[in-house]
Amino acid sequence: MKNMKSDKKVAIIGATGMVGRTMLDILAEREFPVADLRLFSSAKSAGTTMTFKGKEYVVEELTAENAQAADVDIALFSAGSEISYEFAPIFAENAVVIDNSSAWRMYRNVPLCVPEVNPDTVKGMRDGIIANPNCTTIQAVVALLPIYKEYGIVRANYTSFQAVSGAGRAGIDDLERTARGEPAAHFPRTIAGNCIPHIGEFEDIAYTVEETKMIRETRKIFGNPNLQITATAVRVPVITGHSIAINVTLLRNFRWYDLHRVLSWAKGIVVLDSRDGRYITPLEVVGTDEVYIGRLRRDLTDEAALHMWVVADNLRKGAALNAVQIAEIL
Questions:
Q1: Residues near 55 by Cβ (< 8 Å), separated by ≥ 6?
Q2: How many CB atoms lie within 10 A of CB 108?
Q3: What is the pLDDT of residue 113?
Q4: Given pLDDT bands bounded at 50, 70 and 90, which one contains residue 4?
Q5: pLDDT score of 278
Q6: Is 135 among the catalytic positions?
Q7: CB under 8 A, 24+ apart: contacts of 201-209
Q8: Which of 35, 307, 287 is nearest to 144 (CA)?
Q9: The dihedral sign for the CA sequence 294, 297, 300, 303
């Protein structure tokens, strides 16, 4: 078991991808104590250089030999599930792996961590794997936690409006391609000027994989397997910034001012007062770290229910920032 020092040897796997690059930026922005940095990618990008705090680093090809030889304390993964299944256990023998893919999220012995919600699940870890939740799940549970703790939740209904960058560079390319009138190459339908209620493959129950991720991950993070959650996931022609319309029924009734106070005082949340028509859009949250709540209002059909509009930068809080925050806990 590795003796973790104050300065950490850090590896980024998938360093040249959109989330990998954002991880590198956030490590610098937050002055994470990096003693040494290793950058890994596929053979296609190996040999290129990336800059961190004014110093250039050569990107290495990710191979079993390189992974076994890597002397790191923390490995930040953003390279997809197949890569994580193959290489995360190798790094996890001597380091803590923080994995951004869906590979390990539902394993019973793997923490699924959002630092504002359940930081205790990862404290004290010196090796092993920690899973980063789905990008939409992260912002949903940050917004719901204060309500869950103060009032309890009977049921929550998610409708997500997810940016194309959630599908990586291929998603952005597809938006640009279809905007030129060319056929879609990544998404199941044309995304330019359109909305597609289809993210991930369909399961036998007629929900998509993305929808069941949100349901199962919320239950695991809150430690409540019986929590009633349902979801509809929609891809929209937005480059960055996921939005979720959430309808939530509470265990007990609430007063408006008390609810607003509970949310406003919560860590990582910015609440916009909906009584004067204030709200925020995905375009306005790009480059920010908070989860924004607007259109907050009581459900007209149920005194103990409410509606909320939740927006966050999916590349930052939905992925890279959450991973770095976990590393900060360590």
A1: none
A2: 5
A3: 97
A4: very low
A5: 82
A6: yes
A7: 207/231, 208/233
A8: 307
A9: positive
Single out the catalytic residue among 113, 186, 242, 260: 242
* Amino acid 273: pLDDT: 74
The confidence score (pLDDT) of residue 40 equals 96
Instruction: Calculate mean pLDDT across residues 282-287.
Output: 96
Amino acid at 140: A
Q: What is the pTM of this model?
A: 0.94
CA distances for 325 relative to 2, 32, 177, 261, 267, angstroms:
20, 10, 35, 25, 13
**pLDDT of amino acid 3:** 46
Q: Is 296 helix (H, G, I), strand (E, B) or coil?
A: strand
Give the pair of three-digit tokens for residue 106: 């539902």
**What count of other Cβ atoms lies within 10 Å of the Cβ of residue 275?**
9
Catalytic residue among 135, 195, 260, 307: 135
pLDDT attached to residue 54: 92
Mean pLDDT over 218-239 rounds to: 97
3-state SS, 184-232, equals CCCCCCCCCCCCECCCCCECCCCCEHHHHHHHHHHHHHHCCCCCEEEEE
- 24/26 Cα distance (integer angstroms): 6
- Annotation marks residue 242 as catalytic: yes
Confidence of residue 43 (pLDDT cuts 50, 70, 90): confident
Where helices occur in 81-199 by DSSP H, the ranges are: 81-92, 135-151, 169-179
Strand pairing category for 228-235 and 242-250: unpaired
> What values do phi and psi take at 268, rounded to 5?
80, 10
pLDDT average, residue stretch 107-132:
94
State the amino acid at position 285 in one-letter form: V
